Amino acid sequence: MAVLSKTSRSPATPLPIIGEYALTSPWSTSSAGTAMWSFAKKGGRDYFIKMFISPVLPNADSKLPPELIAKKREMCEEFYRRGKRVYDAVNKSDTGNIVLIDDFFFYKTKYYLVTEKIDNMVITSKAISERPTETKLLLLKVLSYSLRALHNNDVVHGDLKSSNILFVRKNYNVLIPKLIDFGDSFLESDPKSNIVGDVYLSPEGCALMNGEKIRLSRKSDVFSMGLLFHEFFTGELPTFDSEYDYPCEAVASGSTLTLNKGLLPGLDTLIRSMLLLYPDRRPSMDEVFESLKGLQNKTTDPHEIEPPEVESPFKRLSSSDF
To answer: For residues 82, 85, 87 and 93, what is the CA-based torsion angle, rounded to 10 degrees?
Structure first.
């Protein structure tokens, strides 16, 4: 992911107003995937605003052929319909720790997504791993509860990663995670033909990015969350053979992931099950949440995740899915 932000204006250029939202910072592409983001104000409140790079509806004075303009308009309308269904389902999943969608709208030629601006603290995974065990377990429970709510409303987050989890500090120095960024989310009942992702990508998500016609399910989120659980609890991702760049590649190729010895008994077993190659063999987030209860404060030895079997583990898409 990009580390340095790129902006779309020179220092002397006034910040634009997008509909009712007055930008307070330049557009950035840092960790934005296929979008740009900024902060804005409306009615005295601060917001996070995301601009989708595509689809784009041509201007009225566009020189494009009418049939191409009509096709682009149809693509935009479908993008809005699908997005609205997803964001309504996200808001229905409100747990208090999901950053909800305040607005989703079209302006001039592009679509925009707006949420509240979170005053979060900057903290590394390593620093989180050094917190007391009770603090870390609460963190995992809140994350699993929030993702469970999304899944129970048919929402697949689709881009779970450390930068899409913000932390706020509550009483007694407790860290509370907030799930953000649903710009790449979709309904499991309405599958996507593409996905974004990085180091936390599931094996089936990796296969989809490589051109295979894979039907992603909520179990793809479970794999990503398993990696995040391990990272937040131990300060690092599971280790794997150096010939692979990412955990999903190692798992998909039959290699093993080795879990850190600092995990609690029971938590190591849970994470191993979340990181299995076969989506259907991973637990649901309901099961993950229940498994997090009553874990004992003892560490365990390193464990390797079992190598996959030979046959394809993924559910394939057919043309009727699109």
So the answer is: -140
